[in-house]
Amino acid sequence: MEELLKLINEEARRRGIAVELFLADLLAQKLDPKDRVDIYLKIHEELLREIDEEFAKGNLQASEKL
Questions:
Q1: How is the chain classified by DSSP, letter by letter?
Q2: Surface-to-core class of residue 28, CB atoms within 10 Å of its CB (0-12 exposed, 13-18 middle, 19+ buried)
Q3: What are phi and psi for residue 52, nearest 5 degrees?
Q4: Residues 43, 35: contact at Cβ < 8 Å?
Q5: For the chain, N or C: smaller number of CB within 10 Å?
Q6: Could you give the CA distance from residue 52 to residue 47 in angstroms, rounded to a whole number?
Q7: Is it the case that residue 63 has pLDDT exceeding 70?
Q8: Is the pTM higher than 0.85?
Q9: Per-residue pLDDT band at 8 (split at 50, 70, 90)
Q10: Which residue has the higher pLDDT, 46 or 9?
């Protein structure tokens, strides 16, 4: 199990995305196109919300972190 987690972390890092986004992308590939679009929209909405929160805190580099 530890090797699997390491592999997931390495692949997400290689792609430059969070582990959660990497896993969501893997799962979304198995869905029909409409459901896939819905998931991607929800993910992007959450990322934009997180960026807005960071900017509100004065973190002007929020987009680089997310």
A1: -HHHHHHHHHHHHHHTS-HHHHHHHHHHTTS-HHHHHHHHHHHHHHHHHHHHHHHHTT-TTHHHH-
A2: middle
A3: -60, -40
A4: no
A5: N
A6: 9
A7: no
A8: no
A9: very high
A10: 9
